[in-house]
Amino acid sequence: MVDLQEAGVIPSAVREFLARPRYAVIATINPDGSPHQAVVWYMLEDGAVIVNSKVGRRWPSNALRDPRVSLTVEEGLDYAVLSGTLEEISDRELAQQHIAAMGLRYEGPEGVARRSPVWQTQERVSFRLTPRRAEMRKG
Length: 139
What we know:
By secondary structure, the chain is an alpha+beta fold. It has a single domain, classed as Electron Transport, Fmn-binding Protein, Chain A (Pnp Oxidase, Chain A). 31% of the residues lie in helices and 42% in strands. The chain contains three helices and eight strands, in the order βαββββαββαβ. It is globular. The two termini are 15 Å apart.
């Protein structure tokens, strides 16, 4: 595990691993202190990790109350883990742009065309992950 000298600066090996569209598992803290995990899409933007969700789901509700999270991205025996805090991006129009960009990243133009009418009816929220720790492990 690497303690980051400067919060938010993701080491290059981790950034390179995250550059491919792999699924991530985000871990948040429930109100009773128990962990909650969810599979999420993510993207890199200006050196930061962006995650997005429909408002009202458990993990973003948890993150708004307690922003401490862990994000794990794996492929086989290789994985990256980032631990830190989420910062809400309050611009809802930007959240719509984020989900469209993530849809293109994960499902291509056909997926965006199919899902976009649903996303546009949802209130969405995006978060920026500020990592305090980062780990990259190779099988």
